[in-house]
Amino acid sequence: MLFVDASHLSGPYEGTLLGAVTLDVDNHLFDAAYTIVSSENNDDWHWFLSVLCECLGSMKLVIMSNRHKALLHSLSRVFGVENHCYCLVHMRENFVRYATKKGIRRDVSKDSVKEMFNRVAYAATGAEYGEALEELRQYKQELAHWVEDNESERWAQSKFSKERWGKMNNNPIESSNNWMCGLRQMSIPCLISGHLQKLQKKMDMQKALVKK
Q1: CA–CA separation, 212 and 210 (whole Å)
Q2: Dihedrals phi, psi of 7, to nearest 5 degrees
Q3: Which of 100, 148, 173, 208 gets the most CB atoms within 10 Å of its CB?
Q4: What radius of gyration do the chain's Cα atoms show?
Q5: End-to-end CA separation in angstroms for the chain
Q6: Mapping DSSP to helix (H, G, I), strand (E, B) and coil, where does residue 75 land?
Q7: Cα(141)–Cα(146) distance, rounded to whole angstroms?
Q8: Where are the beta strands (DSSP E) in the chain?
Q9: What's the rounded Cα separation, in Å, for the pair 99 and 11?
Q10: Do 129 and 147 form a contact (C-beta atoms < 8 A)?
């Protein structure tokens, strides 16, 4: 799996950092690639993903994103729509925001809505998914329509056709963005140099662990 996202640079040149990370066999963060571009737009994401795909060769990967419009446009063209899944945290936030517009305002009600959404998202089988969706429909029909209208086959566990090993959110790339947080305030040469130093330190620590 690859987890992709963008983060803004606040240094003197500004711009946007596009990143792709994965997890190694010990479930540790592994930086796959990053680049610095002008902004998070269709052309820059398409270029970055195309180069990444070329480097990966024949590997067939599942890509997780936060459903940004430029990513929706580019990922389907480079990796295929069937290999693209959406971060569950992002989907749940959108769902709760929609529920609030439909009159769900008290904290207790929001928690109940989140629980019902989670039952839909984490349902292990199609039958369980149908039961959870029907429960949501009985509670408020508009919320069930939201699930049906927002590509549940891209985020619900029982509906997504590819293997993603229980990974339902974009936490790895969020961790990478936090890891790069201090560097994003620097000039571009210092950012790249600082990243190399952090990466070398991380690899040295892993090597020391292996020796033990």
Answers
A1: 5
A2: -140, 150
A3: 173
A4: 19
A5: 29
A6: helix
A7: 9
A8: 2-8, 16-23, 29-37, 63-65, 84-86
A9: 38
A10: no
Whole-number Cα distances in Å, 92 to 41, 82, 110: 24, 21, 11
Only one residue has tokens 């109940």, namely 112
Three-state DSSP state, 87: coil
Q: What is the pLDDT of residue 107?
A: 60
The two structure tokens encoding residue 116: 């019902």
How far apart CA 49 and CA 70 sit, in angstroms, is 11
Q: Does domain 2-86+164-211 have CATH number 3.40.50?
A: no
Name 64's bridge partners. 3, 85
The Cα 158–Cα 127 span in angstroms is 9
Quote the tokens at residue 155: 């985020």
Determine the Cα angle at 37 with ends 32 and 42, to 5°. Answer: 90
